[in-house]
Amino acid sequence: MRKTSFKKDFINYCLYNYDFKDHTAVWILNFIKSHPLITHNISFTDSSIRRKLRIAEKNVNRPTLMFEKDGIITDNGETIFHELNLNKTDGLYLEFILSTDDIRYNQIRSEELTKNDEILQEDIKELEHLIDQALLSKDEVRFYELTDELQKLTKERG
Fold this sequence. Notes:
Layout: H1 2-17, H2 23-33, H3 36-40, E1 42-43, E2 51-56, E3 65-69, E4 72-74, H4 77-86, E5 92-97, H5 103-136, H6 140-157
Parallel strand pairs: 1-5, 2-5
Antiparallel strand pairs: 2-3, 3-4
Helix pairs in contact: 1-2, 1-5, 2-4, 5-6
């Protein structure tokens, strides 16, 4: 639950500390934070997610709202709303374009990376345990499946 809570807190922080040219951005941010499924699936760091929402504050020379999905880009608030509403469980890369280097934004991105690394480490330990079990039970097929998965996770970790 902490994962969702700190994201919701950050969205509140942005709403109270930044001005947005388009009130639709405020509406969409309020919509996101009021839906735990959407909030839970937000990433501030994983730009490889196929759905991206960029929100720019008033003081930058960028469009306030830009939503991208599978290479299609829109700035239409109603389209963005419907996409978020219909696909609440899909990942969403949320990027804020701010006029200054914001310490809290940097902190939330750093915290998310740390949490992701901790989860990855736990997954690796679990796979190692399952590999040991496969060896003990002499399950060759399972052993190779698990070692392939472990190699993928190890590459992901860097």
